[in-house]
């Protein structure tokens, strides 16, 4: 919701689903404008972005849209203030993706036990001072000779060295000419198999500075192969059977190919030279070039993605491609030399790696979930490692981002619960600090105990059952010989029917009708209760259950929902009618802004109803009077105020079709446990709603405020 309107979203009805990337677009442009290549979002438009006082994102980590509709009446302020509602497509690692493309910045602890980013902007230069690449090489560009390993580094990292007893039988490449910054670079990579002798080379690739492959050949090992290591080497027994080339042949060819001032480039090249049993004095090792703290090293696959933006060693490939690995190492070294250490340090590789690790952990956790309890992820979606962390972008531009919540982030970027911090403390801190920040993320929490103890599956079952009951009506009594076709025709004029069955357990037959939209069921109750249908005066009512006792209150609140303001529902349309026909028929209605003709999300066929959105509420009221009783192409129309025109309409459809009518029985003990838990949750939700209201009221005008229900899985 924008305090003082600045946001226009053209999404309505079945289009109310957005991706995490679309949310990222919105937040990025709202916070940065045209800085950092921020562009207007593709799915909505922000007007006068430069006038925005700030952006506030409120996160309710354990809650999803299930909780929002289960406790719809308790979210009294939230649903009245926030006009735009969207379903976010399932995404692993959702909260991490919010803070950037998968990376959480390390917040600092405050006296209250809360977590937040520094309240002062962090300059780019002060960040670089602490980067291990910057510390090792400084900020200025250098020639390639500055990155060649020294004799001390060669020794420390177990490179074959001339004159050492350990490597006395190794062959020298003969490249003994002094190196300059214009010396030629060559990429080298080998694949090894385990033999009775140890690791022996079975595949060698050499590429020149232009990436051209000079040598790409299989090698017959001297000893019997014990393990081909096919998953890594890609080598199989069949591949080596016809091979005649021996290690000595490769050594001779390399000596002839390499000029006397050649510089070899590789990733952990010491292993390759040991397998080749060769000594070369001038080496650039990319595993050491892209320095990390504590002697750790980045993998070649990660560096290829993070630095060059390319995928290597893909899962569908059997083993590594040595030519590809050699070329990648060479390109990495060239990038480092051309761009200089300062530019490389700005990539913030540690943070990008943390993002990748976090995504992998999340995927593994999802994989361990029972099949029925996990959301299908977009498996083919590649990790977006090329974009900088969202909060880091803000800090670089001199803004003051703020992160407050009940969680701290450990060194791997995973959220750890901090139970000593209450929502009340978070609110108090937010009221003080949010006005000082241009971008704030506030995390409230229900508490982790509410995830397991409240039996989410049963909660989902109860919400689904209640929705089904609200969509269902019973009509009757009829006589034994009543015309079912006439009854169906009359009730279908209220809206699309999902199922119709005859109830024969009663003294006289009744019909049970389940509609696809709430408005249809409500119209049937309002228009046909006490009416004459198929020659019988009937009663129309919803099922009477404990959960349905507040149905009338819920219907009234849905009708007053800010999302349904100026929206009406129209039923009784013929199947043959098109959207163009409707546009022409309703063109005379004043202030008509939008028309939405619902479609079956599986078949794509449109329903016999539509929603009309008007610019002014009064225009919607006037339209209701005109449309009721209106005949369109021989069909008499019925209309009423909308109850579920946007986000809820799609959600009901999904719940309806995923759950169907086959609902399992819940034992009394579980029901009692769930009931007790619900009472506790209701109180907590009411408090959260009040906290959000207080926070919202404290915001300056022209503040974009977003509330997220990311869900548990």
Protein described:
It is a single chain. By secondary structure, this protein is of the alpha/beta class. Among the domains are: 198 residues, Nucleotidyltransferase, domain 5 (2-Layer Sandwich); 84 residues, 2-Layer Sandwich (Alpha-Beta Plaits), CATH 3.30.70; 78 residues, Alpha-Beta Plaits. Helices cover 37% and strands 18% of the residues. It contains 27 helices and 32 strands. Strands 9, 10, 11, 12, 13 and 15 form a 6-stranded mixed beta sheet that branches. It has a 4-stranded parallel beta sheet with strand order 16-19-4-32, with helices on both faces. A 4-stranded antiparallel beta sheet has the order 21-22-20-25. A hairpin with a 6-residue loop joins strand 21 and strand 22. Helix 13 crosses helix 14. The radius of gyration is 33 Å and the shape is elongated. It starts with 6 loop residues before the first strand and ends in a 5-residue tail after the last strand. About 9% of the residues have low confidence.
Kindly list the characteristics that best describe this protein:
single chain, 713 residues, Nucleotidyltransferase, domain 5, Alpha-Beta Plaits, 4-stranded parallel β-sheet, 18% strand
Tally of helical runs: 27
Low-confidence stretches: 100-124, 370-388, 408-416, 660-672
Q: Which percent band covers the strand fraction?
A: 15-25%
CATH topology of one domain: Nucleotidyltransferase, domain 5
- Derived from helix and strand composition plus strand pairing, the structural class reads alpha/beta
Q: What top-tier CATH class of one domain fits best? A: Alpha Beta
Please identify, by name, the CATH architecture of one domain: 2-Layer Sandwich
The pLDDT mean sits at 81
InterPro entries: Nucleotide-bd_a/b_plait_sf, RBD_domain_sf, REX1-like_exo, REXO1/3/4-like, Ribonucl_H, RNaseH-like_sf, RNaseH_sf, RRM_dom
GO molecular function, one term: RNA binding
Organism: Dromas ardeola
Protein name: REXO5 exonuclease
